[in-house]
Structure to design on (320 residues):
């Protein structure tokens, strides 16, 4: 599913639905803080998992040159033992005027096998790396942070950066920049507004389901110093599945507006869309039966964009 982002809107009380009930300022802040705290608590409960993810990305820049990327990933995490394994198969097609320019395909993997042992696999070869190198690899490989779901741009491979989880913990605890209101649809709208360091303002607007108390969507609006109106920078829609007491995403669809500067210095807007789909094989269950070995690092790989079973794998060289 691809959503085309074309909404420009000034900042009224609500762009997403009419308010159904008026709350006092304290009630509004308390409700907003409660919903975002519940979201963060749910996200932090996604601890141990075996999940398969598909990702489709499309972008079109200047001169009609665009990129289409498909990625398949299998991620396993045992938080108790400090073990993680992620394998990515990525295919990127660059196109111009509907004609293919080139195609690139790669298989990459990362693994932390416990006891401070870290490995990376590229082009069928496995190398052991230090902790710092492994941490630098996480953003490059786009290892996702589920803790920041709906608070930061998924996959948020660097949640410790500016505006990360500590920022949201502080904003939720304070409540000063938060507000909420009930919509006539029954949903609950939550806003977080804050100044930009470069001038202007940024507004986060979530729409929460009153049943699941999880966000159905979040829209980010930006107002620059030279403009009185907010424009939609990013829109993300979520679908959730409840496993036990925890909600996990089954689909994240995002569209965003970016800018590219031509040789004359003129800025041109263009669209970027991302569609993620998730299959949760296990959640917060023991995965002790899976061995985090160098052989597994090579065996557990998607084949032609079909994620293999952890117990099947593919033929791989013996460990040396």
């Amino acid at each position: 599913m691809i959503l085309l982002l074309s909404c420009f809107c000034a900042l009224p009380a609500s762009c997403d639905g009419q308010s159904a009930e008026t709350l006092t300022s304290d009630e509004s802040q308390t409700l907003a803080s409660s919903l975002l705290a519940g979201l963060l608590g749910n996200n932090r409960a996604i601890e141990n998992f075996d999940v398969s993810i598909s990702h489709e990305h499309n972008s079109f820049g200047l001169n009609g040159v665009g990129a289409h990327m498909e990625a398949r990933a299998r991620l396993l995490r045992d938080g108790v033992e400090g073990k993680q394994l992620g394998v990515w198969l990525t295919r990127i097609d660059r196109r111009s005027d509907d004609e293919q320019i080139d195609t690139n395909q790669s298989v990459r993997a990362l693994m932390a096998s416990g006891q401070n042992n870290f490995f990376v696999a590229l082009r069928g070869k496995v190398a052991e790396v230090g902790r710092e190198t492994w941490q630098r690899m996480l953003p490059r490989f786009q290892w996702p942070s589920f803790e920041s779901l709906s608070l930061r741009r998924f996959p948020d491979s660097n949640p410790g950066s500016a505006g990360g989880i500590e920022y949201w913990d502080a904003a939720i605890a304070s409540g000063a920049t938060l507000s909420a209101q009930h919509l006539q649809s029954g949903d609950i709208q939550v806003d977080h507004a804050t100044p930009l360091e470069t001038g202007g303002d940024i507004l986060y607007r979530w729409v929460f389901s009153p049943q699941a108390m999880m966000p159905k969507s979040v829209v980010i609006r930006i107002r620059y110093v030279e403009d009185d109106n907010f424009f939609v920078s990013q829109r993300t829609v979520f679908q959730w599945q409840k496993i036990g007491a925890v909600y996990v995403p089954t689909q994240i669809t995002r569209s965003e507006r970016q800018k590219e500067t031509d040789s004359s210095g003129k800025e041109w807007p263009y669209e970027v869309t991302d569609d993620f789909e998730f299959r949760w094989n296990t959640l917060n269950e023991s995965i002790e039966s899976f061995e985090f070995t160098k052989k597994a690092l090579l065996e557990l790989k998607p084949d032609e964009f079909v994620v293999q079973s952890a117990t099947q794998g593919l033929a791989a060289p013996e460990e040396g």
Remarks:
- The radius of gyration is 21 Å.
- Residues 33 and 172 are 5 Å apart (CA to CA).
- The first strand starts at residue 19 and ends at 21.
- The first helix runs from residue 25 to 44.
